[in-house]
Amino acid sequence: MNQSSVPATDSGTAETPVPSRDTDGTAAADTKEPVRELTTWELPQNHRKDARLKPRGLERQSWIARPAEAFTSKSLRNRLIGGIHSWRDYPPSLRLWFWLIPALTAVLAGVLRFVRLEVPHSLVFDETYYVKDAYSYLVSGYERSWPAKANDSFNAGNPDVLLNSPEYVVHPPVGKWMIAFGMWLFGADNPLGWRFGAALIGTLTVFLVSLIALKLFRSHTLGLVAGVLLAVDGHHLVLSRTSLLDIFLAFWILAAFGALLLDRDDGRRRLASRLAVQAAASPGGVPSPLQLLSGPWLGMRWWRLVAGLCLGLAVGTKWSALSFVAVFGLMTVFWDMSARRIAGIRSWASAAIIKDGIAAFFTLVPVACATYVATWTGWFLSKDAYYRQWAATNPSPGWDWLPNPIRSLAHYHLEAYKFHQGLSSDHPYESSPWTWLVMGRPTSFYYQAPKQGTSGCVVETCSSAILPVGNPVVWWGGTIALVILLFWWAGRRDWRAGAILAGVAAGYLPWFMYPERTMFVFYAVSFEPFLVLALTYVLGLALGRSNDPPWRRRSGLYVVGLVVMLAVIATAFFYPVLTAEVISYQDWRMRMWMPSWI
């Protein structure tokens, strides 16, 4: 695997500004002093052979070009994107594996998530809220109240006991509609219907993370590693087998990140193409100073539109996605700044803000907002949903120009925000964000103690549990990897390290702003794919470059294989307490590595 995003080839340069390494990890083409590198044919005759055999310094960099070629489309694309632009640029023998590897990891994930999905045959943990809300969506399009002991009726296969009064809920509709999809397919009277949506989305998340790893690292090996590590992680596995909202949140966030990666390449292709057209029309094959002052407009960025749609659906699942909207929006503008700098634009920072940043804001934010509002369609179409008629009985001087449904929805959101801000009730399994990365306090979703002769228990005392404990190899290794990425981003200025760190920061750091709030470790599933990518990045460093000596590559491959094997073994060990298998109490205790896990 070539860890560099730009494959190294030999090329000479003469009297051209020497590109420096940019924060984007590729080459930047605007230094103050032009530096002249002697080309091979300019060296004395008796030195030419040695120069060809031992190219030095910048002559080995593929992003160096002669002045007459510096602004051709090929040269610009090579500097901005590198040699591989899409899966079609792989050799024919490898193109199939570009899609087959993510598919194979998704199959592994699907087996782990769908087998025994109906166990336990009862609502577990917060399924008591979200599954019943999803059924209410199927019936009415909004949340309705339930009678006492509704769980008993639901568990018995009789969900049709809804009351006519609306229910007050504090989470948006998208995740509950996705749960309702499985119930629409398989019925609301069985656990397969309750959990199908979560298992499907968890499997697709594994497929996505493998594709994104292939895009980031340009390595089939690392694409496989990323997919397998997420597929076997116990934390992600449990969240994919229970119908909570967080697995849907993680999926839409990762989909938005993938769309922005595609937009990054698409924007750079447009920049290269439009600059090349300007250069071809100018004397000397170089754009005019005025054209190089800010560079061209890049037009409509369709992948940003897709990212905005995904982010709107993420916020429509849980409001905690708002931090990703902010971080991803800034990230894509920084990418554009770097692209314009690499291309040779003089005022690259201001140009990126004016020509890319403003457009990015008006692409991402309005689309995300419109998508979010559209997710409340069922509420708008109803007549008696909670707060639906609030505006009709509560005039607001100065705001009466707004339609009543909009004012009612705004009031609903204000009340929900107050609820979240004041959520500080004690819970036996609450955990501080300080403990999340080391899985200090996993949330117990389910625990039963069957007696001998019941539920498959063949010893005196048994246990059946669902504990979303993360794979120690993935989480503890990923935590160490984050530290390495931080240094690698600061020292090597690799844009991929920065992008992964941005994903973790957006999902993790905001929780430290609310130390009094009741929080749970399963919130961390929103940034877990980025933690897996961080570990994969570091394993890529261990694997080495494609042009390293064979012994170095073999050693790196052994390290990567050992880490993946240990992760698989760890999942096999913890699997009984991830999926409610009936085991002896002693076997259950053996898997509780920390007192805080009990």
TrEMBL record:
Major site of localization recorded for this protein: membrane
Source superkingdom: Bacteria
Residues of the ArnT-like N-terminal domain: 192-258
Spans through the membrane: 96-115, 192-214, 221-238, 244-263, 358-381, 473-490, 497-514, 520-544, 556-578
Domain Protein O-mannosyl-transferase C-terminal four TM stretches: 407-597
Pathway: Protein modification; protein glycosylation
InterPro entries, sorted: ArnT-like_N, PMT-like, PMT_4TMC
Membrane-topology descriptor: Multi-pass membrane protein
Region Disordered: start-end pairs: 1-39
Polar residues bias locations: 1-14
Family stated for the protein in its record: Belongs to the glycosyltransferase 39 family.
Protein name: Polyprenol-phosphate-mannose--protein mannosyltransferase
Organism of derivation: Paenarthrobacter ureafaciens
Organismal lineage: Bacteria, Bacillati, Actinomycetota, Actinomycetes, Micrococcales
